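Changelog note: in this version the structure field was regenerated for every chain. One regenerated record is shown below for reference.
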Amino acid sequence: MRLLVVDDEPELTEILRRGLLAEGWTVDVAHDGPAALDLARFEEYAAIVLDLMLPGLNGYQVCATLRRERIRTPILVLTAKDGDFDQIEALDTGADDYLAKPFSYPVLVARLRALLRRGPVMAEAQTAVGDLSLNRTTHRCHRAGVPIALTPREFAVLDLLARKPGIPVSKTEILRQVWPDDAEDPNLVEARISVLRRKIDTPFGRTTLRTVRGLGYRLVDDRGGHD
């Protein structure tokens, strides 16, 4: 899942970006209102974390514009403005939740998960390739009903492949989406693919996760007649 974090404090956005990446999400960052609007209009986000005090356009204006343009991405306002009227205005202009700074990071993550459970992406939260299923909201994976424990990075790699069943995804694309800070090290992908095979295929006698020589990797339904 891809999130958009909008805040004019670079140090805070970097802390949030790294933390949310570790949770298994892909994260884009904007530092002003116009940039946030551009990204939200043309990228598909699971949720937006939005500050109110932004240069160019403030958070209220960003919220109102997105809702006026019928963009229904869930918005969590994260701001130092913690007065009752600030919260009322943010919610009235289109925000879905409100969290004041200073904030608890675990609470932020819990609220994001709650937004995703009830937001417009809920219908797309569950993905299945054959009898292998993933839930992006809960970050849970099952094969034929058997739970499979995955780390956030493993889940992110598998989720990326599951979004394009049967279609090769390159190492470069996996790096860009899952390890944006280490986009020059393909060994990260190879190691994670190896671990994933040991978790989702080997115990079940399956060959779901395939290497496509010269192209990358693909996830297939390997049950009889489905490959």
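Spot check on this record: DSSP finds eight helices and eleven strands in the chain. Helices lie at 10-22, 33-42, 59-68, 84-92, 105-118, 152-162, 171-178, 187-200.
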